[in-house]
Amino acid sequence: MFSSDFRAEILRRCEKIQAGLRAIGADAALIHTNANLYYTSGRVFNGYAYIPVEGEPHYFVRRPVGLKGDTVHYIHKPEQIPALLSEAGMALPARIALEWDASHGDYVRLSAVFPAAEVLNGSGVMRAARAVKTGYELAQLRESAVKHVEVYRRIGSVYREGMTDIELQIEIERLLRLHGNLGLFRINGQSMEIFMGNVICGDNADAPTPYDFAMGGAGMSCSIPVGANGSLIRPGMTVMVDMCGNFTGYMTDMTRVYSVGELSPLAAGAHRCSIEIHRQLGLMGKPGVAAADLYNRAVDIVNEAGLGDYFMGYTQKAGFVGHGVGIEVNEAPVLAPRSKDVLVENQVIALEPKFVIPHVGAVGIEDTYVVTPDGLQAITDAPVEIAPLL
Predict the structure, then answer these.
(1) What's the pLDDT at 212?
(2) What is the pTM of this model?
(3) Which uninterrupted H or E stretch holds 265?
(4) Taking a C-beta distance cutoff of 8 angstroms, is the pair 289, 343 a contact?
């Protein structure tokens, strides 16, 4: 199913999962969501990954045909899995971990695959394993970051006077695709939907959305009520670009702000405050630091600057200041006031302290960082000042 070199990478990932399974007393995990299948096999397929607490993973595949390997088994339905495990000489689990954050229908069906087994919550095990990146994953993220930054450096070249936000976004999407972007903005859970990211300008930044986003946007349709809404880009307003960095299957997250003409002192000051939050949290963000402490420090900086009314939204506020990224754009840890997460070396985090200024738009930057013993190391290395479009 994969080369011998990549097999070693998959086994490293499975060792982290197996440690998590031992911690909750599970004998195995049965995985079926796309992000976790990609993590445990190196590809997305229609089927299931079975991770025993000891030994190699087994893959039970419906589609596509042609995948090969000693632990690859073709099936028509998951109920065939126990018999195939027995044929392979493996004991059936007494306690099986499933993805509790998947659909209820899948959970019910998979709960019955091993009828004698106790069912445990494996979602936390998978999120914890994926939060700490391997060397291979860090390399994929760094490669994505380089391409992400290169596209952002070219945004000014595709702007034309008289453009709307959606027209500019389409040109940025084209740049991203030409640079190798895979086009998929993979998000954990079923409550958020967005196409390749956000470009919003002016007061559209303050339009509330159904999602816990730092900036809003009415969108072009009530079916996807977020992001660009066709607003004309005018002098005195900001254009915030928060577009998908998925070039390798691992996503970097980056936001930069552009403008036409001069901005108000309030907007300029709020943007500088965002940069200062990045600086201070970058120094603070070392292994062992509580994610909630990072959030609270950001709030303190904002309040000291007198900008609390505008922080993480104006009419509607987001409840976090950063989040993990990787295969999905909203992984662990979460930098929020009630977060129980603690930073671990080689986690990858996007910090996004943003502000919404009425009649101007959104300001602030977002960068992707690796947690190191010396603090947060930025991998999206692009200029942070507001860039003029004209």
Answers:
(1) 85
(2) 0.96
(3) helix 265-284
(4) yes
Q: Which residues pair with 388 in a beta bridge?
A: 259
| Residue range 36-45, pLDDT digits in tens | 999 999 999 9
Residue 354 near residue 312 (C-beta atoms within 8 A): yes
**Which helix (H) or strand (E) element contains residue 59?**
strand 58-63
**Which position has the token pair 């499933």?**
98
The phi, psi pair for 129, rounded to 5°, reads: -65, -45
Q: CA-to-CA distance for 220 and 367, rounded, in angstroms? A: 27
For the chain, give the number of residues: 390
pLDDT at 2 over 80: no
User: What six digits make up the tokens of 223?
Assistant: 């079916």
> Which residue in this structure is represented by tokens 């994969």?
2
Q: What is the pLDDT of residues 308-358, one digit of tens each?
A: 999 999 999 999 999 999 999 999 999 999 999 999 999 999 999 999 999
State the Cα–Cα distance between residues 219 and 224, nearest whole angstrom: 6
Q: Residue 244: exposed, middle, or buried by beta-carbon count in 10 A (0-12, 13-18, 19+)? A: buried
Q: Which residues of 127-156 are buried (b: 16+ CB within 10 A; e: fewer)?
A: bbbbbbbeebbbebbbbbbebbbebbeebe
CA distance 282 to 371: 9
With a cut of 90, say whether residue 215 has pLDDT above it: no
Distance of CA 233 to the CA centre of its chain: 28
What token pair was written down for 181? Answer: 């972007």
Burial of 362 (0-12, 13-18, 19+ CB in 10 A): buried
Nearest Cα to Cα of residue 361 among 389, 329, 319: 389
pLDDT of residue 216: 83
Find, among 222, 199, 151, 196, the residue nearest to 329 by Cα: 196
Q: Residue 165 — pLDDT band, cuts 50, 70, 90?
A: very high
Q: Please give the average per-residue pLDDT across 204-227, as a whole number.
A: 91
**Angle at Cα 194 formed by Cα 190 and Cα 196, nearest 5°?**
130
Cβ(249)–Cβ(140) under 8 Å?
yes
pLDDT tier at 119 (50, 70, 90 boundaries)?
A: very high
| pLDDT reading at 390 higher than 80 | no
